[in-house]
């Protein structure tokens, strides 16, 4: 049985990727992912925003530097360089340690940094780059189109600066995901990762305070990903699709592949069940393939793609006649 698949032009021995998370933030972690059977890893993102915050906390950095532009520039360049160097080291050592593709991930705040850092990651040997483009949509004066334009501009600039494949990881909160996804595809996104799951918040009604919500997803969240993977695949989007959010077991992997995903990224299920759970996921995938007489992933990828299937994915509202709860 052949579980191999192609994603971003890379050959993966299985479609199961460990998504960007603390599992992939160290060489040891990357080695563990490969040993557990991952087809590829997406390294923990380098968040420029975090670097900038860390710079402020670094020993030796005092507010006095803010008032001295040259010293400020020196300190921030030096400390930022240090953070990037650590990430470059992670890429280089991970590449040496494992024989599966290593995808680097970045999230920048400064336009110029997206391209500069992407190029450094390519030079360090990353097999591909995942752009975690999450632009905060909290300013009521910024139009939706401006946010989408910015994401497209970032992608275009990064594509110009590197030759390795580039994927874009987006959130699910766009008015017309199909239109936005096609724009990214047309500007050269080799892959689209659907979806990034944003930080959740909650309210504790006893302490009457805002608190962090669930960091981990639940299997039911899988259905949103399934819908959009299917709709984009059926419209023949010229980018590979990678399913992320709510994929917990082998059966959920099968569903995403049937909908048209080229790969599936696991995260929450591994926090809940441990990295060794990847082998259970792969066994479930193999069992299903055996029961349905498929020898390769290619044989059933995107199979649920008929007009009738698409119509079901396009349905948004519950009509009484097909959802009667009595
Ligand atoms: C603890 C934790 C850390 C994460 N770190 C990153 C990150 O650095 N970059 C990123 O793009 N996504 C990050 N994610 C998001 C995951 O990669 C994934 O997209 C999300 O959790 C949805 O997938 P899931 O339902 O399988 O958890 C993180 C998620 C968790 C729970």
Descriptive report:
This protein has 326 residues and is of the alpha/beta class. It has one domain (5-322): Aldolase class I (TIM Barrel). The protein has eleven helices and 13 strands. It has an eight-stranded parallel beta barrel, surrounded by eight helices. It has a two-stranded antiparallel sheet with strand order 1-2. A two-stranded antiparallel ribbon has the order 10-11. Helix 3 packs parallel to helix 4, helix 7 (222-234) runs parallel beside helix 8 and helix 8 (250-259) crosses helix 10 (277-291). The protein is globular and about 70 Å long. The model has no long low-confidence stretch (mean pLDDT 92). The structure holds flavin mononucleotide.
Instruction: Please give the number of β-strands.
Output: 13
Radius of gyration: 21 Å
Mind summarizing the main beta sheet?
8 strands, parallel, barrel
User: CATH fold name, please?
Assistant: TIM Barrel
Strand line-up in the sheet with most strands:
3-4-6-7-8-9-12-13
Uncertain segments are none
Overall tally of structural domains: 1
Mean of the pLDDT scores? 92
Distance between the termini: 46 Å
| CATH superfamily annotation | Aldolase class I
Number of helices: 11
